[in-house]
Write a structure and sequence with these properties.
The chain folds into two domains: 323 residues, no CATH class; 220 residues, no CATH class. The strands form three sheets. It has a four-stranded mixed beta sheet with strand order 4-8-6-9. A three-stranded mixed beta sheet has the order 1-3-2, sandwiched between helices. The chain is an alpha/beta fold. Helix 2 runs antiparallel to helix 4, helix 5 packs across helix 10 and helix 16 crosses helix 18. Keywords: Cell wall biogenesis/degradation, Glycosyltransferase, Membrane, Transferase, Transmembrane, Transmembrane helix. It is found in: Endomembrane system. Its main location: membrane.
C-alpha cells in the first residue's frame, strides 16, 4: 500500500491526480487494504503538502534515521502521523489474518471509488482520486496477463478522470521523489518535441541492493545502453516507471479521419462513454459527482469496460492499448509505437524518482529473467522480429537495438558450444586454437582480453562501482546464458509449434528473512528449482573434470592447448560460487545433493555423446 500512498502524495495539483490500483486476484484483502490506505492518506497527503516533504512513502519516511528539523507544530503533527501509521499497519495485519488469502481466477468485475463514509464534502477536493479495480476473469476468456490488466485500467480511467497522461508503477515500486510528474511534464510541455513524445521513461532502481549486486538486479548492462538509445528516438518501455501519453496508447495515428461510430466501435469496443471520452478529450467532463460516488449508469459503464469479453471483436491488444502478442507487453507495445512514428525520452536524475525491491535470491532472479527472455524470444520468432519488421518503419540503428534486445537468447547457442566442446577437446588433447607461436593466436587473445577489459571499463563508468561489480555482473550474465536464455529459446520454439503455452509466473514479493541475511552477506542462495540449477552445475562439473584431467595429459603440447586451458580456467574461476555451493558449503543455501547427482549424470551423458562425435 506504500506504492499507492506515495503516488497519491506526488507534488502535483490533487484535482489532477487519480490513482488506480489493479487487483487481478479480486481479493477482499486487497480491497480492504485499499480502503485503509485511503483513510490513512486523508491525513498523510495534507501533512506532506503542508511541510513539503521530500520523502512521501510513509514506510521509508518513518524508517529513516535522519533527524527532521522543524518547529513544535511539525514535531507534534509528525508524532500524530507516526501513531496513525502504526494503527494503519495494525489494521492491515488484522485484515490479512481475518480474510481468506485465496485468489480467484473466476470472478466478476469490482470497481470502487474511495470516498469518505459521510455523505458530505469533507475536503475531497484536496485529495486525489483513489480507485480499486478488479477486472472480470472467466476461464472461457483469455485475460492476457499484465497487458490485459493495464488495458482495463486505461478504459476505466478514461470515463472516471480521463487524464491525458498516466504513470505505470509495479506494486513493489514507490515514488521516491515527489517531483517526478513535474519532471516528466517538462518534456511533454516542450512545444518542439511534445507532439511526438509517447512516453517518458525513468529507470528501475532499488533500495535493497547488496554492495556488489550479486544477482544483477540493477540491470546495469541494459541501463548503460539506454543512454545511447535515447538518441535513436528513445528507449523501449521498461515495464514500469514511465509516464505515457494517453493519445499514443490509443493508436490515434492508425485511425482514419472522419471515422464513423460503427468503425470506432470496431476499434474501441461498444462503450459509447469511452468513445466520447476519446473523441472529445478536450471537452469531455467525467461524470463523477463531487462526493465521488458513481451513479448507477456510470457504474454499469465501468462494469462493461472491465468485463472479460469487452476486448472480443475489437482492436484492443492489436492496434489499441497494450499489445497482447507476448507476455512482455512492454517490448511489443514500444516497438509498435516507435514504428508508428512516436519517440520516447529516457531520464535518469541523480535523485531516483522511483525505488523498488529487487529479487534477493537466485530462484526468483532466474524465474524472472526466464519469463522476460521467453517473451522477447516470442517476438524474435514472429512477424514482429525487429530485423524484418523494424527497418521498414524505423531507422536501421533502432531496429538493431530492438534486435539485440529481442534476440538476446540466441547467445545461449555459442555459450554452450564454448562451454562444452573446448574442455572435452582439451581432455583428448585436440587443439582448437592456433599455437602460441602462431601470430593468429594473438588475434584470438586480443579479442578475448579486449572484450573483458571493455566490460570492466563500462562497469567503472558507473559511479561507486569496482572490479568486483564487474566480476559479479559477468557471473550473472553467464548464469542467464546457461539457464534463462537456454529455456527461453527452447520454450519459444516449442510455443511456435503449439507445444508450449505462454504463462506469466509472478515474481515473489514476500520478504524471507533467511534470504535477506544471505543476500546481505553476499552469499548465493541456491535453494532454486532443480531445472534452473542443473544446466549450470552440469557445465561446471564438465569443465572442472576436463580441466583437471586434461592438464595432466598435455605435457609437451602446452603450446597448442594453452588457449583451451585458459578458457576453461577462466570459466571455473568466474563461477567459483558453483564450486563452493556443490562441494564446500554445508548451510541450507548450498546446492542440494540431488541437484549435484542429477547434474553429474547429465554431464556424463553429454560427455559421452560429444566424445563419440569427436572420435568418429
Amino acid at each position: 500500500m506504500n506504492t499507492v500512498i506515495s503516488a497519491m502524495s506526488l507534488d502535483y495539483p490533487p484535482h489532477k491526480l487519480a490513482v488506480y490500483i489493479s487487483d487481478d486476484g479480486g481479493s477482499l484483502i486487497t480491497l480492504n487494504a485499499v480502503r485503509e490506505a485511503w483513510r490513512f492518506s486523508r491525513f498523510w497527503v495534507p501533512f506532506c503538502r503542508k511541510y513539503g516533504l521530500n520523502l512521501r512513502c510513509p514506510e521509508t519516511y518513518f524508517a529513516t534515521q535522519e533527524k527532521f528539523i522543524g518547529n513544535a507544530e511539525f514535531d507534534a503533527d509528525r508524532n500524530i502521523l507516526r501513531e496513525r501509521y502504526r494503527e494503519f499497519q495494525e489494521a492491515l495485519e488484522k485484515n490479512s489474518m481475518n480474510e481468506s488469502k485465496s485468489v480467484s481466477r473466476d470472478h466478476p468485475p469490482t470497481i470502487e471509488v474511495m470516498t469518505d463514509d459521510q455523505n458530505k464534502d469533507s475536503g475531497l477536493r484536496e485529495m486525489p482520486l483513489l480507485v480499486y479495480v478488479a477486472r472480470e476473469k472467466r476461464s472461457c476468456h483469455p485475460h492476457h496477463f499484465k497487458g490485459g490488466a493495464l488495458n482495463v485500467l486505461i478504459r476505466v480511467s478514461a470515463v472516471i478522470s480521463n487524464a491525458p497522461y498516466f504513470l505505470v508503477l509495479d506494486c513493489d515500486m514507490y515514488c521516491h521523489d515527489p517531483s517526478s510528474a513535474r519532471q516528466a511534464m517538462c518534456y511533454y510541455l516542450d512545444p518542439k518535441h511534445s507532439p511526438h513524445i509517447a512516453w517518458v521513461q525513468f529507470p528501475q532502481k532499488f533500495r535493497n541492493m547488496s554492495e556488489h549486486d550479486i544477482y544483477g538486479g540493477r540491470l546495469n548492462n541494459f541501463l548503460r545502453a539506454a543512454y545511447g538509445v535515447d538518441g535513436l528516438r528513445g528507449t523501449n518501455l521498461m515495464g514500469c516507471n514511465f509516464f505515457m501519453k494517453r493519445e499514443a496508447i490509443y493508436g490515434t495515428k492508425n485511425i482514419q479521419r472522419g471515422a464513423t461510430l460503427d468503425q470506432l466501435k470496431k476499434l474501441f469496443g461498444s462503450s459509447n462513454e469511452f468513445i466520447e471520452a476519446f473523441m472529445n478529450k478536450e471537452r469531455y467532463k467525467p461524470k463523477m459527482p463531487e462526493a465521488r460516488k458513481p451513479s448507477d449508469a456510470l457504474q454499469n459503464e465501468l462494469q462493461l469496460l472491465a468485463s472479460s469479453s469487452y476486448d472480443v471483436g475489437t482492436q484492443w491488444g492489436k492496434m489499441v492499448g497494450y499489445r497482447y502478442f507476448s507476455v512482455v507487453e512492454d517490448a511489443i507495445t514500444s516497438l509498435e509505437l516507435h514504428c508508428d512514428g512516436w519517440i520516447s525520452v529516457y531520464i535518469n536524475p541523480s535523485n531516483p524518482c522511483f525505488l523498488g525491491a529487487s529479487t534477493n535470491n537466485l530462484n526468483d532472479t532466474l524465474v524472472q529473467q526466464t519469463r522476460w527472455a521467453f517473451g522477447l524470444m516470442q517476438m524474435g520468432l514472429s512477424r514482429f522480429t525487429p530485423l524484418i519488421y523494424g527497418p521498414l518503419r524505423m531507422s536501421i540503428l533502432q531496429s538493431m537495438w530492438y534486435g539485440a534486445l529481442v534476440l538476446d537468447s540466441l547467445s545461449t547457442i555459442p555459450f554452450y558450444g564454448l562451454s562444452i566442446i573446448p574442455p572435452i577437446c582439451l581432455l583428448y588433447c585436440i587443439p582448437l586454437y592456433p599455437q602460441v607461436s602462431n601470430p593468429f593466436f594473438y588475434a584470438f587473445a586480443f579479442a578475448f582480453v579486449s572484450s573483458q577489459l571493455k566490460h570492466v571499463q563500462e562497469v567503472f563508468s558507473f559511479r561507486d562501482h569496482s572490479f568486483m561489480n564487474a566480476l559479479y555482473e559477468l557471473r550473472v550474465w553467464m548464469m542467464k546464458l546457461g539457464t534463462c536464455y537456454f529455456y527461453a529459446l527452447i520454450n519459444s520454439i516449442l510455443n511456435k509449434f503449439g507445444l508450449h503455452e505462454a504463462n506469466f509466473n509472478l515474481t515473489n514479493k514476500v520478504v524471507d528473512d533467511e534470504n535477506v541475511m544471505l543476500y546481505e552477506r553476499e552469499i548465493y542462495d541456491f535453494r532454486a528449482l532443480p531445472m534452473l540449477l542443473v544446466p549450470l552445475c552440469c557445465i561446471y562439473i564438465l569443465n572442472l573434470a576436463c580441466f583437471i584431467i586434461g592438464v595432466t595429459r598435455i605435457y609437451g603440447k602446452g603450446d597448442e592447448l594453452l588457449a583451451q586451458v585458459a578458457l576453461s580456467l577462466f570459466g571455473l574461476v568466474v563461477n567459483y560460487h558453483l564450486l563452493d555451493g556443490m562441494f564446500l558449503r554445508k548451510d541450507n543455501g548450498r546446492i542440494s545433493p540431488y541437484v549435484f547427482q542429477l547434474a553429474l549424470i547429465v554431464s556424463g551423458v553429454i560427455f559421452g555423446c560429444v566424445s563419440v562425435f569427436l572420435l568418429h
